[in-house]
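Let's study a protein:

===
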Amino acid sequence: MRLWRSALAALFLLCLSTAQAAVHELHVGSQQVTFSTQGGVPVKWVSCYPDCESESAVKAEWFNELDGFMAWTVPAEPQQSARIIASEFDITIVETDTIVEVTLSSQQLFNNRQLVFVYKLPKQGYRGEISASGMGGLALTVASGESFVPEQLPGFGSIYSKVRPFLLDQNGQVYLEPTQEGYSSIDINVSSSIGIRNRYWLWVGAPIAQSVAEYSLSGKNRPVIVVRAATGSSQMSLVTYSGPTELNSLAEASPVLRGVLFSAIWDWLRVLSFGLLYLLEWLHGLVGNYGLAIILLSLTVKILMFPLTYVADKWQAQVNATSSMLKPKLDEIKQNFKGEEAHHKVLAVYKEHNVSQFYTLPSLFGFLIQIPIFIAAFDMLAESFVLGQASFLWIVDLAKPDSLFALPVVLPFFGGQFNLLPFVMTLLTIVSAIVQEDADLTPDLQHLQRIKLFLMATAFFLLFYTFPAGMVLYWAANNLFHLLKILPARLRQSVS
């Protein structure tokens, strides 16, 4: 709690004094940073993709003069923290071919030493550096602003509205879950880093030496991280990344940063997600539209999976034929016998027809082979930065629900927008259930199968209604291709 109070004090003093301090606004490649000579910190930080000069630039504001902050503090000495924040600093800006180096030097001494804060902003990319020297126990506090919080989506779509602190190491990203009591603490070293991220943007700092990090998360979805220098050290340096979760940008800054992508799934599924991402980018290069690329991705996956689905369909047909053959006798047993006697009768029927009591297991094969693809594809589409602000037909942004028009009222769970795509997706599922007719199944079993499909369609509708349009489009396309697959056989049955 001490650190939390220090951070709040820092924020108060910073906001109070900014108007009196000299400010220097810098536009450097993909960064727009405003420095204050009071406190020696940036008071506003904006990152852009692909760069801040592009007319189509996508921007993320980490914090500004009124909301969120970056501050240098001494957590163990609140009075020193207040003194640093109130102090004036001299600013020196040096430009090289690759970076703009901003040095802020305190005009007064602290324990007979001068405080020096250095910020290195890259002219290309998002990899920078922040360092401090002159006092032991220094800590860098970073608190995201309200503008960094994504639009709050209703329903299950709320999972894409989170801002979280996270730890990143060689094994990938791990979300940090702060306690309700205040700050939680964790050791970080040269092989790990700590950061703040929303769905598409992240600020992460990797210490050059052993450090201690602390983190907190307010009820307003606003994380705060504090990185402290090693005990006894009067210097601290962080290699930083302040930019998008775009694959090339991450890889250019550091191979380790790829670990922020698809980190919620198993490693072998992450490989599959990366493969699908590369395939999506290749398809986009062919057609020039991400909506079309998603549809083609669904089709390509179906084609690649055809040998496995063909085998699965054959096994399912065998299971259906066996179920239809056994059903009359099993129904008779169910009607006339109970308990253990019924069980023995059922086993006798299986033995008579040389059927294993586990004969339905092969029918799970088709379901099981789709689960990994489903998880990998959906995780990829959920985290693909390139889908942000990409349009398709009536869909303005594939990273958000398709929102055809506003509803007159805000509905619980569904929100205040009418999303057309989930209805299209569900309709395709229902039509497929009606059209699909298996000659190997009895009418009762066909009816039961349709009920299961209707229930699944309802569940997916509720799940997907407030999901990003890119994800719903993929599943809608999958349902469409399934319908086109079964429709010719149904038409042949009707003709005959």
About this structure: The two ends are 77 Å apart (CA to CA). Residues 333 and 341 are 9 Å apart (CA to CA). Residues 269-495 form one domain.
